[in-house]
Design brief:
CATH topology of the largest domain: Rossmann fold
InterPro entries: 17-beta-HSD3-like, NAD(P)-bd_dom_sf, SDR_fam
Subcellular location: Mitochondrion
Helix content: 55-70%
Oligomer: single chain
Order of helices and strands: HHEHEHEHEHEH
CATH class of the largest domain: Alpha Beta
Strand order of the largest sheet: 3-2-1-4-5
Shape: extended
Keywords: Mitochondrion, NADP
Number of strands: 5
Main location: mitochondrion
CATH architecture of the largest domain: 3-Layer(aba) Sandwich
Structural class: alpha/beta
Number of helices: 7
CATH superfamily of the largest domain: NAD(P)-binding Rossmann-like Domain
Largest sheet: 5 strands, parallel
Family: Belongs to the short-chain dehydrogenases/reductases (SDR) family. 17-beta-HSD 3 subfamily.
Number of domains: 2
Length: about 230
């Protein structure tokens, strides 16, 4: 009898322990299911907001909402060019601020979208002196949108001690100083008219092994709070 009682006691203890574990696993499963459900719902919401809602709503008039001109730095290729084309598609005149390797982008935008374009030949790596010509070129224009896209990147990740000092200054001038100074140039007009938008394009190397480029862009993330 003692052996039977001991077995029943052991069985009850094991059953109670398993029951407690099952309750814990049930709670974990419920939390996991809730988290996955939230992610799916959020993805559906983002999909609808990004692709369905714009088709149902009336197209926004960017010129009326922001102004006649949009300034895009680094607009001669890639993301900057895409921004310039999309803004021109919405009726905005485009000011391309980039190096002399403009590759005929301004003429193509004018021909394709029928808007006015201006090209400012600038090498941001030269430092503060380049901004005088930009200020002169933008004087009197109704600048409503600024896209800070200019950036330089290493061809491959390097240890910061292996990067020449001149290259580090180039990264700072182009990735950080250019965005801050361009915002400083256009913000007074935006503040006066109480309208405008600044788009800051951050590179994908933030958080990766490209230390010097990532550092300049991370600093950029915090510095931009000065004008947000």
């Amino acid at each position: 009898m003692a052996a039977v009682d001991s077995f029943h006691l052991l069985y009850r203890e094991v059953a109670r322990s398993c029951h407690n574990h099952l309750e814990f696993l049930a709670v974990v499963g419920a939390l996991y299911t809730a988290q996955k459900s939230f992610c799916i719902l959020y993805d559906c919401y983002s999909l609808i907001r990004s692709h369905v809602t714009p088709c149902l709503l009336r197209k926004r008039d960017l010129v009326q909402q922001y102004g006649k001109w949009a300034v895009v730095t680094g607009a001669n290729s890639s993301i900057g060019k895409a921004y310039a084309e999309e803004l021109a598609k919405n009726g905005m005149n485009i000011i391309l601020v980039c190096s002399s390797r403009e590759n005929g982008v301004s003429e193509a935008i004018t021909g394709d979208y029928g808007v006015n374009t201006k090209f400012i030949d600038v090498d941001f790596s030269q430092g503060h002196e380049v901004y005088y010509s930009i200020m002169e070129a933008l004087k009197g224009l109704d600048v409503g949108i600024l896209v800070n896209n200019a950036g330089v990147f290493d061809e491959y990740p390097e240890h910061i001690l292996e990067v020449p000092e001149d290259e580090l200054w180039k990264i700072i001038h182009v990735n950080l100083a250019a965005a801050v100074m361009m915002a400083r140039i256009v913000l007074p007009g935006m503040a006066q008219k109480k309208r405008g938008a600044i788009v800051n394009v951050i590179c994908g190397s933030v958080g990766k092994s490209d230390a010097q480029t990532a550092a300049s862009k991370v600093k950029y993330l915090y510095t931009k709070r000065l004008w947000v």
